[in-house]
Design a protein that fits this description.
Helix 5 crosses helix 6. The chain is elongated and about 55 Å long. It is an alpha+beta fold. The strands form two sheets. Strands 1-2-5-3-4 form a five-stranded mixed beta barrel. Strand 7, helix 2 and strand 8 form a beta-alpha-beta unit. Helix content is about 45%, strand content about 25%.
Length: about 230
Amino acid sequence: MVEIISVRFKEGGKHYYFNPNGAQFQPGEGVIVETTRGTEFGECVQGNTPIDEMELTAPLRPVLRRATPEDEFTREKNKEKEAKALEICQQKILEHGLEMKLVDAEWSFEGNKVLFFFTAEGRVDFRALVKDLAGVFHARIELRQIGVRDEAKMLGGLGIYKYIAQFGGAGATVPLTGFGWLLAKGTAKAVSEQGVLGALTGGVTAAAGGIAAAVFFGLLAALIFKPKSKS
C-alpha cells in the first residue's frame, strides 16, 4: 500500500495522485506540487488515502508544501495574465493570418512558460507566431493542437460549462452530445474569436435557434394542453 492525495489543477479538471510525504492534507487546501512541467499550484480534492500500488499508472511525484497566501496571490495573478495572454495571442494569430482557433492559455506557476491550446482543421506552421509571442511575453512559448473533444473537456475544466448550466437552467444540463454540446461548442468558438468575453455570450448565441424553438414549442404545448380550472 502507498499513501496518496488527489490533486486537480483546474476546476472540473482531471485528478492526479501525489505523494504527501507524511504531511496531512484536507480537500480544498492549496498545495504546491512537482509535475512534469515543473512546480505547479493545485487543489487537494481527496485527502490522505492508502491505495494499492497496482493502481498507480506512473511514479508518484511529491507534494512540495502546503500553499501559502503568497502562492495564492501568484495563482490569481497568473489567471489575470492568462486572460491577457489569450487576447494578445488571438490578435497575433490574426496578424499572421493563421487558420487556428485559440481555446485556452496557461501560465506556469513559476511564470517562465506560457502554453496555448488551439484547434485547427489541419496542420499549422506557427513557428513565426511562437517567435512573436516569445518577444511579447519574454517566456518560453508552447502551442499545442487539440481535438474538438479535448476542446469541450477543456471548457468544462475551465468551469465555463458549469456557469452556462447555472445560467440556462435545466436545458443546459443535457449531455454534451446534444444541446449542452452546442452551448459548449459555441462558447469555444466565441472564446477563440472574442477572447474571454466570448465565454459569456458564445454558448447562448450559438444555441439561440434552439432556445427560440424550445420557447416557441413550449408555449404552443402549454396553450394546447393547458389544464382547465376546476369549477
